[in-house]
Amino acid sequence: MKIAVIGTGYVGLVTGTCLAETGNDVICVDINEAKVKQMQNGEVPIYEPGLDLLFHRNIEQGRLLFTTNLAEAVEKSQIIFMALPTPPGGDGAADLSYILGAAKDISKLITEYKIIINKSTVPVGTADKVKAVFVENTNIEVDVVSNPEFLREGVAVDDFMKPDRVVLGTRSEKAMKIMADLYAPYVRQGNPVLFMDERSSELTKYAANSFLATKITFMNEIANLCELVGADVDAVRRGIGSDDRIGKRFLFPGVGYGGSCFPKDVQALVKSSDAYAYDFQILKSVMEVNEKQKTILVDKVLKYYKNDIKGKHFALWGLAFKPETDDIREAPALYIIDALKKQGATVTVFDPEAMENVKQTIGDQVNYAKNQYEALENADALLIATEWSVFRNPDFDKIESKIKNKVVFDGRNLYDLQKMIDLGYYYNSIGRKLID
Ligand code: UDX
């Protein structure tokens, strides 16, 4: 099939590349000329495991092209995906100007039937708004389909190629048939393609992310309670997770959820509920609790140092909001750094992928180490904010040779408690026994 993907951000690029992989001809469009040049020269602009291989293979096969020319892409395609940003506007509600702007541009270019697919996370009713833009500007028939993405950063290629489900919001038989054919190669194992109306599809995306954010936040609160009552959150997690109705996944407590999706989507769902005069109380609490959880490590640090960390120096391992990504949007690590600095401490950081992004965001507010051990030089304590594999089994002799005191505040529960007792550490993790 002939496909255009408008917007080559994270979602657009993964979508375009993975659609080319099953033999479709895909043209990706972006207004950023430098980025388009970079991609035309074979450079992948983001870090995403597995994307490189597919990206190069499909460029070589001539199935994946990049352009700034929207008219050319629209003309050559029957199916047009929009993967455009929906940043929170001033009031926290999603800003639709990119999507509606692109819809207007496309509506002025089309000369024959097209399917316009919205991949971005958008408030309920957006498909209707997009459709209205077309009705206003052209007589040509279009179907507007809502097709939310459920891609996790770090495993996005796998999530696209083998989705748990594909959600498609459309009531047009014609569009249903074409979309079912397009997605058929991705659901060969029998995972469902779920057709529904546009509004249900749009809400499904928010409901899924908000549910997961709630699940994590619930566990964070259970972890906080575990510390007070002397229970072990790992045991409780296993205890509840083996009930199929609850499930084992997304029950890991930590320093709060971050990233480009959960914080934004929870906030947007609250805002759109408000707009319908519905007070979404659970989600309001989720936002509040998560805000506190992002600096829970700093609370622990302050308690340990009796509220005085002026002049103390900390090593921080992990900056990305989760492993296998260089993404630092809403990353708890940034909140931790900010809180430590406000209390007069200094920080040296290390992350396997996200250092450059942090440098560009906060510059010389922290020191940057070349590796995880160098970060420990003269540190009073080590803090861990992201569960990268390289932090899971470190060389503790090396740690000891660098760090001033054997003190670790672990926001991701990476180490075995008995091991930390044997090694003689002060070890403060989330929802588990304090080792001191
Ligand atoms: C998420 C959704 O999973 C995906 O379906 C959607 O399309 C986009 O948003 P992503 O933001 O890439 O994907 O990350 P995810 O792996 O879901 O993690 C989100 C946050 O939750 C991270 O900050 C992670 O550290 C945190 N998390 C996750 C926990 O704290 N505990 C868990 O058990 C799981």
From TrEMBL:
<keyword id="KW-0560">Oxidoreductase</keyword>
<feature type="domain" description="UDP-glucose/GDP-mannose dehydrogenase C-terminal">
    <location>
        <begin position="315"/>
        <end position="417"/>
    </location>
</feature>
<dbReference type="InterPro" id="IPR001732">
    <property type="entry name" value="UDP-Glc/GDP-Man_DH_N"/>
</dbReference>
<dbReference type="InterPro" id="IPR036291">
    <property type="entry name" value="NAD(P)-bd_dom_sf"/>
</dbReference>
<keyword id="KW-0520">NAD</keyword>
<comment type="similarity">
    <text>Belongs to the UDP-glucose/GDP-mannose dehydrogenase family.</text>
</comment>
<dbReference type="Pfam" id="PF03721">
    <property type="entry name" value="UDPG_MGDP_dh_N"/>
</dbReference>
<protein>
    <recommendedName>
        <fullName>UDP-glucose 6-dehydrogenase</fullName>
        <ecNumber>1.1.1.22</ecNumber>
    </recommendedName>
</protein>
<dbReference type="InterPro" id="IPR008927">
    <property type="entry name" value="6-PGluconate_DH-like_C_sf"/>
</dbReference>
<dbReference type="InterPro" id="IPR014027">
    <property type="entry name" value="UDP-Glc/GDP-Man_DH_C"/>
</dbReference>
<comment type="pathway">
    <text>Nucleotide-sugar biosynthesis; UDP-alpha-D-glucuronate biosynthesis; UDP-alpha-D-glucuronate from UDP-alpha-D-glucose: step 1/1.</text>
</comment>
<dbReference type="InterPro" id="IPR028357">
    <property type="entry name" value="UDPglc_DH_bac"/>
</dbReference>
<dbReference type="Pfam" id="PF03720">
    <property type="entry name" value="UDPG_MGDP_dh_C"/>
</dbReference>
<dbReference type="InterPro" id="IPR036220">
    <property type="entry name" value="UDP-Glc/GDP-Man_DH_C_sf"/>
</dbReference>
<dbReference type="InterPro" id="IPR014026">
    <property type="entry name" value="UDP-Glc/GDP-Man_DH_dimer"/>
</dbReference>
<dbReference type="InterPro" id="IPR017476">
    <property type="entry name" value="UDP-Glc/GDP-Man"/>
</dbReference>
<dbReference type="Pfam" id="PF00984">
    <property type="entry name" value="UDPG_MGDP_dh"/>
</dbReference>
